[in-house]
Amino acid sequence: MRSRMLDPGYGPLHFQTLARVGLLTVLLVLAGDFPARAQSAKLDLGMLQDLSRKADRVTNVTLDHQMLQLALGFMSKDDDDDAEARHVLQHLQGVYVRDFEFDKPGEYSEADVNAILAQLHAAPWRRIVSSRDVKSHETADVYVIGTGNSVQGLAVINAEPKELTVVNIVGALDLAKLSDLEGHFGIPRVKLNGDRSTKQAEAEGSHP
Predict the structure, then answer these.
(1) Considering only CA atoms, which of 41, 40, 45, 43 is closest in space to residue 164?
(2) Contact 195/128 with Cβ under 8 angstroms?
(3) What one-character-per-residue DSSP string does 155-167 give?
(4) Is the N or the C terminus of the chain less surrounded, counting Cβ atoms within 10 Å?
(5) Other Cβ atoms within 10 Å of 106 Cβ, number
(6) Residue 99 and residue 19: Cα distance in Å, rounded?
(7) Residues in Cβ contact with 81 at an 8 Å cutoff, skipping those fewer than 6 apart
(8) In a 3-state reduction of DSSP, which class is residue 10?
(9) pLDDT level of residue 3 (50, 70, 90 thresholds)
């Protein structure tokens, strides 16, 4: 893959009772929930830095919320593809891409990949896609934080013999609209449905 996202279960509760216990407090708790999730959705990619010295080609994208807003200003409002991407990007807190292309196989190790996977094998991450190609020795995994199509964080790891790609998207993202980001900021194509490995991963849950 070449490089080119208060159902508190309260029982019956009268509104005036809610007001007495402090509606503002409830709203503050809800408002504070998303930043906490967004923070946990950001991966530590620093351990991949050494690969830059080995790779023939490196794509390094680091866009926090402020930089994303700045980038939106450079995207065309008249281009349909850019318009769709703008709609998705305005809800994100960060986009981080690391892509390394090597001249020959074996330039990165399994330990490099495991350093990222170790962060994803813990809650609240869950794996929704796991793909393996024996002939090409290519693996691809997609992890999310959240439920359904709406998630608060996404991570993609694509490993080929001569290329390693890690994508980390932080913020509210509709998986159905993830394709709108493909081709922007080094985000590759992500296949989220239609193959047996995807269904198998969803059935298995969050861990391999």
Answers:
(1) 45
(2) no
(3) EEEEEETTEEEEE
(4) C
(5) 8
(6) 51
(7) 180, 183
(8) coil
(9) very low
Backbone angles phi, psi at 53, to 5 degrees: -75, -20
Q: What's the CA gap between 26 and 17, in Å, rounded?
A: 12
Quote the distance between the C-alpha of residue 100 and its chain's center.
18
Tens digits of residue pLDDT in 56-104: 999 999 989 888 888 777 676 666 666 777 777 778 899 999 999 999 9
End-to-end CA distance of the chain: 22
As a whole number of angstroms, the distance between CA 12 and CA 171 comes to 32
Distance set, CA 60 to CA 21, 40, 93, 127, 181 (Å):
48, 21, 17, 24, 16
Question: CA 154, CA 143: separation in Å to the nearest integer?
Answer: 6
On whether the CB atoms of residues 5 and 13 are closer than 8 A, the answer is no
pTM score above 0.85? no
- At 14, which amino acid appears? H
168 burial type by CB count under 10 A (0-12 exposed, 13-18 middle, 19+ buried): buried
Which H or E element spans position 65?
helix 65-72
Higher per-residue pLDDT: 7 or 189: 189
Domain ranges of the chain: 37-204
To the nearest 5 percent, what fractions of the chain are helix, strand and coil? 40, 30, 35
